[in-house]
Amino acid sequence: MALISSPVIKPKPFPFSPLPPSIKLSKVLNFGHRTTQTHQLKTTFRRQSSSLFDVSNKNNGNGKMQAVADANGTSLEPEEAEQQRNWRRILLSDVVVKRKRQVLWGRKWNALDIGTAGVILAMHTLCLFAPFYVNWGAFWVAFGLYVVTGLLGITLSFHRNLSHRSFKLPKWLEYSFAYCGVLALQCGGPSNVGDLEKQPFYQFVKSTYILHPLALAVLLYAAGGFPFLVWGMGVRTVWVFHITWLVNSACHVWGKQTWNTGDLSRNNWWVALLAFGEGWHNNHHAFEYSARHGLEWWQLDMTWYVVRFLQAIGLATDVKLPTEVHRQRMAINN
Ligand SMILES: [Zn+2]
Ligand SMILES: [Zn+2]
């Protein structure tokens, strides 16, 4: 798993962020990608291919695509085919990757990179203490915060509400959920999206960003001592980091393609389970405006159930779903 970078749209501040320096971490929205750039497959491959790996889909089974890019974003010429001997197929997948080397050492680190790496390192270090400072209270605090920050904060707020505008919420609720996302400590936040920068709430959050997770850490320590800190901050944030990262890696490698998206996105049930529905990533690439990612009844999508509930009690409005025309257009045998 540790073998690929996020092959599509939004780079994330993950383990030593394999991002080209030109992509600012402050532009990151996790559990997905920004609306404006989604689906620009070519661009995506070109940008991403200068990161950790080149990604290629040699043959996805139905022959509808062959996407190959090299580090400069140009298509592979026949004489370069020899280089493909270095390419390796990912286990149980039809995706092939080629290792690149300039992730850590051949790049310039700016202050934000270093800060991000510091936070990530600190959280992982906290995790080392987890086996020695465990109790049920700490476990449930971590679990609760995983749901609150991961589901309400990242998938529901940052991704579906703010990034894709899949539904509308009253401001007080929109802000509350966005605040949950800030506590996920994913070094980004929603301040990059569209007109959000003009809203005082998001300006405030952006300028005081790190203070909020810090305040939570202090609160946790006061409530339950070191075990709460280790589990509620360390284990929980690292858990959510890695799940976020899975959406952008595993969901382009393992799983089924239900829609003719012309890219590598897959529907992956086990990522969906961990990531509150975000694993139905081929669905998402097909209908990125949709508030619902798990489109079949059996495609578990916890985030959607919450949105549906909010809609039922009148809080979520303008809830967008795939149209029938669009479904037909995206169908694979179309
Ligand atoms: Zn994707
Ligand atoms: Zn998205």
UniProtKB/TrEMBL annotation:
- Key word Lipid metabolism present: yes
| Lineage: superkingdom | Eukaryota
- One Pfam family name from the record? FA_desaturase
Q: Which GO terms describe its molecular function?
A: oxidoreductase activity, acting on paired donors, with oxidation of a pair of donors resulting in the reduction of molecular oxygen to two molecules of water
Q: How does it sit in the membrane?
A: Multi-pass membrane protein
Query: What pathway does the UniProt record associate with this protein?
Result: Lipid metabolism
Q: Which UniProt keywords apply?
A: Fatty acid biosynthesis, Fatty acid metabolism, Iron, Lipid biosynthesis, Lipid metabolism, Membrane, Oxidoreductase, Transmembrane, Transmembrane helix
| InterPro entries, alphabetized | Acyl-CoA_DS, FA_desaturase_dom
- UniProt keyword Lipid metabolism, yes or no: yes
The subcellular location is: Membrane
Q: Which GO terms describe its biological process?
A: very long-chain fatty acid biosynthetic process
Ranges for the Fatty acid desaturase domain?
Answer: 209-308
Provide one Gene Ontology cellular component.
endoplasmic reticulum membrane
Segments passing through the bilayer: 109-132, 138-158, 209-231
What does the sequence similarity comment in the record state about its family?
Belongs to the fatty acid desaturase type 1 family.
Q: List the protein's name.
A: Fatty acid desaturase domain-containing protein
Question: From which source organism is this entry?
Answer: Turnera subulata
